[in-house]
Amino acid sequence: xxxxxxxxxxxxxxxxxxxxxxxxxxxxxxxxxxxxxxxxxxxxxxxxxxxxxxxxxxxxxxxxxxxxxxxxxxxxxxxxxxxxxxxxxxxxxxxxxxxxxxxxxxxxxxxxxxxxxxxxxxxxxxxxxxxxxxxxxxxxxxxxxxxxxxxxxxxxxxxxxxxxxxxxxxxxxxxxxxxxxxxxxxxxxxxxxxxxxxxxxxxxxxxxxxxxxxxxxxxxxxxxxxxxxxxxxxxxxxxxxxxxxxxxxxxxxxxxxxxxxxxxxxxxxxxxxxxxxxxxxxxxxxxxxxxxxxxxxxxxxxxxxxxxxxxxxxxxxxxxxxxxxxxxxxxxxxxxxxxxxxx
Length: 343
Prior knowledge:
The chain has a single domain, classed as TolB, C-terminal domain (Neuraminidase), CATH 2.120.10. Helices cover 5% and strands 41% of the residues. The protein has three helices and 28 strands. The strands form seven sheets. It has a five-stranded antiparallel sheet, with no helix packed on it. The longest helix has 7 residues, at 3-9. Mean pLDDT is 93; it is low at 1-25.
C-alpha cells in the first residue's frame, strides 16, 4: 500500500504522519523522552519546561482515550485497533481491563478499528466511551464491566465510528463521528451517513441532535469549564484546526463552529501527528494534540507551549492529584507533571 493511500485511508497513517519515522526509534518503560518548548511566558504558570516526560506503558498498536478514575486512583486508556482497554495504576503497571473493549464477536472485514476510543467518567462514576467498533456511545459500569449502549444511530442510520466524547451541562454528552474505524473511510459500504458529524445527546440517550455535519474529519472534543463553549479538533491535513462554538443553557450549540486554533504552519513543517484529542483545564486552557505533540493553548487561542513526545500524540487527560498530565502517544503512554491542577 502506498504512503499516499495510507494517508488517505487509515487513521493511524493520517494522524501519525511522519510518526512512521519517529524522532526516536522506540521507547522503553521508565524512559524519559521528548521535551517541552515555551512559546509564551504565560506557559511558566502551568508547567516547568524542564519537567520530564516519562514512559509508563508501551507496546500498544495505537494508544488513545486516556481517562483518570478518581475512585480507585487509576488510569484507563484504549488500544483502539487491538480492541482492548487497559488499566494502569502506580506500582502495578498496565493490565487489560476490557477485552474486547468495543465490538464483540467476529469482526467484519469492513471494520478497521474495533475497540473503544475516547473515554471519560460521568457524574455517576460510570465509564462513558466512544465505541468505534460498535459505532455507538456506550456506558460501562466499572464494578461489573457491563456495557449499555447510550445511542447508536441518528435519524435511523448507524453512526460511522464514534471517536471522542465529552460531558457538558446536566450530563449532556458531546461526541464526534469520523469514519476512521471503517476500512474504506468515506467510501465504505458500511457507512450509512453521508457526513461526518459532531453531536449532542442527553445522558439517557434521548434527543440526539447534530451540531455540525460540515467538518471533513471531526475528532477530539472538549467543553469549557463554564460549560458554555464547545471545542472540536479536525484531523484533516488540509484544514488542521481546532474549532469552537458557543453553547446555550440547554446545551445546544447557539452558534456555528468557527476556527479557533490553526495548525497549518506545523503541518507544513511535517511535524508528527494532527489535531486529535484534547482536555480543557479548569483554568480554561486547552491541552490539545496537534502536529508535534500536546499544545498548551490559552483561552484566547494563543499557543503557549508544546509538550513533545517525539511521536504523534493522540490524546491526554489530567490525573493523580490533577497535576499529572497523562499522554497517549502512538504505541506508548507517558506522564508529565504540571504546576497547576487541571481539575
